[in-house]
Design goal:
mainly alpha
Length: about 230
């Protein structure tokens, strides 16, 4: 099975849900998709030694250091000591822990935050990202589902749910999520790319080729997937 070690720099949360989902999804779902597509369907050529290469991760405008995140945690600790039910402090601490790769503790803070605001889409989305990191794919699917329930226009949450399904080899089920993400943002290159990989994995080479060609038009980095999964 192929893993993309060059994705290690990706973040898990930004100040609001944007490009982080696809970065995490690329880190987790490509391995499963590559493993499946290494057994190519008819009309689809795959090379086991090649996997899609992600674009450079999109970071927050003001990138913080680990020391900054540790300071954020200390600030949140003080706030929570004075006010244990401070949603914003819990959310800030969860994000800081996630950036420090303390995903399990981040999930614990998201759990507490969601007990206070059980309809907060951002908290569900970010908890889903952490659960992807923890390889808790079924739970991530549930979280992304809640995120889109409370924010139906969150293309990243649809993409994240699709990526989690790919990780579980549920390629057919992932396709509608990528399709929804594309309907929200018709220029969403990663959604075309991963929908194309999903089509290739369920023996739909024509659809795979069309999606991967579109992805490549939008993002030249997707050409690697086009060559791998559509034999071009």
């Amino acid at each position: 099975m192929l893993f993309l070690t060059d994705c290690a720099r990706t973040t898990t949360e930004v100040e609001r849900p944007t490009s982080a989902a696809r970065n995490v999804a690329r880190e987790t779902s490509v391995a499963q998709a590559a493993d499946s597509a290494a057994r190519p369907a008819a009309g689809v050529t795959a090379t086991a030694s090649v996997a899609p290469t992600p674009p450079l991760p999109v970071e927050p405008a003001a990138r913080k250091s680990n020391a900054d995140y540790r300071a954020d945690i200390r600030t949140a600790d003080v706030a929570l000591k004075a006010k244990p039910r401070d949603f914003d402090a819990l959310l800030a601490r969860a994000k800081a822990k996630s950036h420090l790769k303390d995903y399990r503790e981040a999930v614990t803070d998201y759990n507490a935050a969601l007990r206070l605001k059980p309809t907060n889409a951002e908290a569900y989305y970010n908890r889903g990202l952490n659960r992807l990191k923890l390889k808790e794919y079924s739970a991530a699917i549930v979280d992304f589902g809640k995120a889109v329930k409370y924010n139906p226009q969150d293309k990243e949450a649809y993409f994240g749910r699709g990526a989690a399904k790919m990780q579980m080899f549920n390629f057919k089920s992932a396709i509608p999520d990528f399709t929804k993400a594309i309907s929200i943002d018709p220029s969403y290159a990663d959604a075309y790319e991963y929908r194309g990989i999903s089509y290739a994995s369920i023996n739909k080479p024509a659809e795979a080729k069309a999606d991967l060609e579109k992805a490549t038009q939008l993002n030249p980095e997707a050409e690697k997937s086009l060559r791998r999964y559509a034999g071009k």
